[in-house]
Amino acid sequence: MDGSSPWVEQAVLHDGAEAQTIAGFWFGTKAVMKIRRPKGYRHPSLDLSLTRRRLFAEARILLHLSNSELPIPKLLDFDEDNATIIMTQLSGLPLFDILRNSHDSERVSKLMHSCGKLIRKMHSLGISHGDLTTHNLLCNNLDSIQIIDFGLGKLSPEIESLGQDLQVLSECLSASHPKHDDAMKFVLEGYSQGEQNEPTIEEVISRYQEIQGRVRYHG
Ligand SMILES: Nc1ncnc2c1ncn2[C@@H]1O[C@H](COP(=O)(O)OP(=O)(O)OP(=O)(O)O)[C@@H](O)[C@H]1O
Ligand SMILES: [Mg+2]
Fold first, then answer.
1. Distance 81 CA to ligand 1 centre (A)
2. Are 61 and 155 in contact (CB under 8 A)?
3. pTM score, two decimals?
4. Contact 135 CB / ligand 1 (< 6 Å)
5. By the 8 A CB rule, do 136 and 129 touch?
6. Which residues lie across from 35 on neighbouring strands?
7. For 67, which DSSP code?
């Protein structure tokens, strides 16, 4: 970009398979640019539609949630032609790193409890996330949890997608953080103390248990 661009690049944060995430400044505000790039091995037109779908989903959800109290980035710019979005930069570290490095089980149980509450809040605002791993939950220096990466999210999801969110987190916890073996218990406790609206907490948790049964049975 030229010298007059409102975007000033600082550092590449993450170079993923589908997106590159870069930290910088947008009109002087600390920001993150996410650039979605096509995957070489997919058919070009399929690539373009998947890329666009994820880009649109993320922008739409960030906008939809922008007036909520949910701790998520604020959408600052959306450029369809260049397949980029720009959002505010959050200050947290991935929960992945915290869980890997912490031996403080009381701290971890509190963090997981607040994840559960936050997930319920997101669900009760009519959003499923689609990729709820500990890399997409950030933890700031006050131990507050924030959520990022809504490219696989859905507006007005079916109960199945809500149950899947819990399932994805549960799988991530047992695969990547086995030493915190009761982490999911605290997530479910937090979830159960969240907003009581439709679909109910019981409906989502029982769908999650059903999905777990299916996964166990089919391997
Ligand atoms: N708004 C943000 N504030 C601070 N850090 C961020 C922000 N967005 C992304 N990051 C950092 O960049 C990493 C990658 O971003 P993100 O999870 O959105 O992309 P991704 O996982 O590559 O995308 P996808 O899985 O949809 O292809 C995050 O794990 C996080 O460390
Ligand atoms: Mg991610």
1. 21
2. yes
3. 0.94
4. yes
5. yes
6. 20, 84
7. T
Position 88: which residue type? T
Tell me how far CA of residue 165 lies from CA of 28, 139, 218, in angstroms. 35, 19, 19
The active-site residue, picked from 47, 77, 97, 131, is 131
Residue 165 a catalytic site member: no
- Closest-CA residue to 86 (of 6, 4, 154, 3): 6
Domains in the chain with CATH codes: 7-88 (3.30.200.20), 93-218 (1.10.510.10)
Query: What pLDDT is recorded for position 36?
Result: 84
Question: Within a 10 A sphere around the Cβ of 70, how many other Cβ atoms?
Answer: 14
* 77, burial (CB in 10 Å: exposed 0-12, middle 13-18, buried 19+): middle
Name the band, by pLDDT with cuts 50, 70 and 90, for residue 3: low
| CB-based neighbours (< 5 A) of ligand 2, an ion | 136, 149
Rounded Cα distance between 182 and 93, Å, is 22
The pLDDT assigned to 206 comes to 98
pLDDT in tens, 71-119: 999 999 999 888 899 999 999 999 999 999 999 999 999 999 999 999 9
24 closest CA partner among 88, 120, 98: 88
